[in-house]
Amino acid sequence: MVVVIVLLFAICWGPIQIFVLFQSFYPNYQPNYTMYKIKTWANCMSYANSSVNPIVYGFMGASFQKSFRKTFPFLFKHKVRDSSMASRTANAEIKFIAAEEGNNNNGVN
């Protein structure tokens, strides 16, 4: 979970930090409409980090997942095929065939 949080932080805050560094160290910087749009987008990305973090903490936390499954059990019901009956039937058929072959081999001699 820590890796995900760090990656989200870098992705969300990286653009505005790069923009500010560019703006500070580039001596011929002239604001224009394109730069305004980039800066607005970068600010929105940094704000998005604050709204995404609680979701990540929530969905990646074991206690939240347990509570979520308890609250919405119908979302997690999986139809599981009962393979025990099929395997018992297959095993019985194999034993029956093996017994028949054993009986046939004994009668041939």
Helix content: over 70%
Main sheet attributes: strand count, strand direction, barrel closure: none
Number of strands: 0
Q: What form results from the Cα inertia axes? A: elongated
Helix and strand composition category: mainly alpha
Low-confidence stretches: none
Strand content: under 5%
Radius of gyration: 32 Å
User: How much is the average pLDDT?
Assistant: 80
Order of helices and strands: HHHH
Q: How far apart lie the N and C ends?
A: 70 Å
Question: Total number of helical segments?
Answer: 4
In terms of quaternary structure, what is this?
A: single chain
Keywords: Cell membrane, Disulfide bond, G-protein coupled receptor, Glycoprotein, Membrane, Receptor, Transducer, Transmembrane, Transmembrane helix
Membrane topology: Multi-pass membrane protein
Main location: membrane
Pfam families: 7tm_1
Structure, explained:
The chain is mainly alpha-helical. Helix content is about 80%, strand content about 0%. It is built from 4 helices and no strands. The chain has helices at about 1-25, 35-60, 60-70, 85-109. The radius of gyration is 32 Å and the shape is elongated. The mean pLDDT is about 80. It comes from Goodea atripinnis. InterPro entries: GPCR_Rhodpsn, GPCR_Rhodpsn_7TM. It is found in: Cell membrane.
